[in-house]
Amino acid sequence: MHDPRILIVANDPDAGSAYLDAIARAGAQGELAHSFEQMAEMAKERSYNGFLIDILTLVRCSKEAKVIAYESINLFPVLRVKWDPRGKKIKLSPLEQTFSPDSDAALRFFIESRCRLFPARSLRRHTRKPIHLNLWYSSDPSFPEAATHRSFAVNLSMGGLFLHTMEELACGATVWLRLLDIDPTPIAATVRWTQHWGEGRCVPGAGLQFETLTEMQRTELTRIITP
Questions:
Q1: Beta 29-33 vs 5-9: how paired, if at all?
Q2: What percentage of the chain has pLDDT greater than the value 70?
Q3: Bridge partners, residue 92, by sequence
Q4: Is the pLDDT of residue 97 over 60?
Q5: 45 DSSP β-pair partners
Q6: How far apart (Å, rounded) are the C-alpha atoms in residues 8 and 54?
Q7: What separation, in Å, do the N-terminal and C-terminal C-alpha atoms of the chain show?
Q8: For residues 161 and 166, what is the distance between their CA atoms, to the nearest angstrom?
């Protein structure tokens, strides 16, 4: 069995070097990205079993980078850590500390219990653009009035969109869409990740992947997305 491949995101060189060493000690292969934009490009080209996220890199990145970060965080096993430059050691986020106060033990557990069992995958290749489209969405393809909601897309690609919603949509669930500006044939979409209300300064909603598109819808989406 191959060693798990872990993608590390840290913009501080010392932190990145420390994380690479810790990943190697824990029996995995580490690769380093200095930003979430670089992480996304790397994860489109190669498959990974999990991500190691530097907390300060996440906190200090731009709003656009946070969208990339949270989409990825919801698709892969993730461990959030912090580099202590004074003590020259890795610290865990408060959530991980509840499982183990020892960073090396927590890292080994993360790799063996989560990453090694997670099939390596890559990120989608479609780049989403900040395009707003009015839409209806429902859990029922017939769109009954009681189960149909009005909303809008925050961004859009040929592969999916980010749906603004205050609802708690479950990852893996099917959502039916009607985009008001194109062919109204219902589109089946799968919830791939969610951004809950109150989690950072981000728009709440869900990242959806299109499962069914008519040829007319593909043509019209191409026209909307292409400058």
A1: parallel
A2: 92
A3: 81
A4: no
A5: none
A6: 8
A7: 46
A8: 16
The three-state (H, E, C) secondary structure of the chain, written as one string: CCCCEEEEECCCHHHHHHHHHHHHHCCCEEEEECCHHHHHHHHHHCCECEEEEEHHHHHHCCHHHHHHHHHHHCCCCEEEEEEECCCCEEEECHHHHCCCCCHHHHHHHHHHHHHCCCCCECCCCCCCECCCEEEEEECCCCCCHHHEEEEEEEEECCCEEEEECCCCCCCCCEEEEEECCCCCCCEEEEEEEEECCCCCCCCCEEEEEECCCCHHHHHHHHHHHCC
User: The tokens of 2 are what?
Assistant: 């191959």
pTM, whole model, 2 decimals? 0.59
pLDDT tens-digit readout, 148-193:
999 999 888 888 888 999 998 988 899 999 999 899 899 999 987 7
- Round to whole Å and give the CA distance between 145 and 214: 24
The token pair at 197 is 């209300």
